[in-house]
Structure formats: C-alpha cells, structure tokens
Amino acid sequence: MRLIFVRHGDPDYKNDNLTEKGKREVALLTERICKWKNITEFFSSPLGRARATGEPALKRMNREAEICNWLQEFPTWHESKTGEKLRTWDIMPEDFFSNPDFFSKDKWCHNDYMGEMIPKRYQEVCDGIDSILTRYGYERNKNGLYDVKNPVPNHNWSEPIKQYHLKSIKDDYPEEKTLVFFCHLGVTFTIIAHLTGLSPMQLWQGFYIAPTSITILNSEERVSGKAAFRVERMGDTNHLTNGGEPISSSGYFADVFAETK
After folding, report:
1. pTM for the whole structure
2. Which of 201, 150, 191, 202 lies closest to 68 in space, CA to CA?
3. What are the beta bridge partners of residue 183?
4. Eight-class DSSP state of 14
5. Of 3, 29, 116, 251, most Cβ neighbours within 10 A?
C-alpha cells in the first residue's frame, strides 16, 4: 500500500485559494501527476487551496477525488484549559523543548496546554486515515501496526536479506494500491505521526514540506499479514526545480535552499 500526500500550492490564505505563484507551481505539478500510472483513488481536503491544487490534474485524467472533511488543515490555534488562545504548532522553540509531553506520542495533546479540542480533532484525523486503510484491508491493531487482510506476495518472506535491507520488488505486483491525498502541511504530518508512532509535534516543529511538494509512505510487509508504514520520500519538489520555479517558503521561518536546473 502506497500513500502519496501532496501539499497545496503557494497559498492565498485570505481567500483560501492559490497565489499566482501557486498556480504556476500547480501547472508543473499537474504535468508530473498526469504521468503517474495505476493510481487507485484520490482524496482531497475540502479547503479551496487544496482543491485548486488537485483539480487540474483530476480534470485531465478524467478522475474525481473523494472530499474528506478530516483532511482539512489541522488547527494552528486552540483554546487551552485556562482559556488562553495558544498556537497548536509553530510554537516558539523554547516552549517546545521545555515541555517533555510534546515528545510523547501518547501525552502530546493530553495536557493543560492543548486543552479539549485538539485531542478530539487529532482522533478525527487518525480515524479518517484508518477508515480508508480499512477499505483496502489494512486494519490497525492494538500495537499500532496494521493487519493485512489480503497480503500481496512479497519475496521478503521467502528470500529475506536480514543483515542489511529488504529485497523490495513489490512494484512487480499489479495488486499494489496507491492512494493520493491533496491536503496541507499540518495534517500530513499528523497522519505521518499516527502511522509511524511519533508525536506530531516533533514533525510540526522539526520538519518542513513546501507547497506542491510530494511526500510518500509505503507499507513494509516483512511478515505475511502484517504491515508498518515508513516514509519513503518527504517534501519532493523536483517538478519545481526542473521547471525553473522557486520553492516557496510558506510555513517556514527561514530561507529555502535555492537550486537551479
């Protein structure tokens, strides 16, 4: 099972749409997506900037995306238990590093800082992605891994390379499913944290993915009927570099490294 997350183009947050730069980014992204083969299903956030990012490719491919409310951006602000309006993520580094709860996958949202709304929203996102995976036979178990109903044959079961790496030739099998999600930085990291057993705070604070970037997770099925998800690629913007379009720093507090083809 392959999951591809596409962040929306350079955003016009005021109008929940794309800037002119964002539209140029999406034009390059569209050319890339239209070359992808055997995409099983598309999903999209209901927000305008995400839909505007996916619609050009979907129209050319004569495909539609399922709109999922839980895919909209994870809240940037929330009300704490003391009634303060606080940032959920992009908090100041000294505040992040001084709170050990933020580094725990079980405690990060269950504290006075986060209040009551954030755990509920987090659970909505977790339940949302798990419900889609369940459709395809990947059922989350009590250990945070996934039981696979109809496992795809995998040479790692009979010909494992135990010392260094897996012999990965899953792409040889036509049954491999690929799902594409048009969404946002914060919710992408929320899903990755859920699938890989991390606190999303660590991803929100420590990683960046640019507008129209592509992030890919794949299931590693080292034992028949069992799967764990792993990040294969994060924040890939090759289509922008190859097309001569600068990478946007929207959502970042530093300058993005500039490359030219």
Report:
1. 0.93
2. 191
3. 7
4. G
5. 29
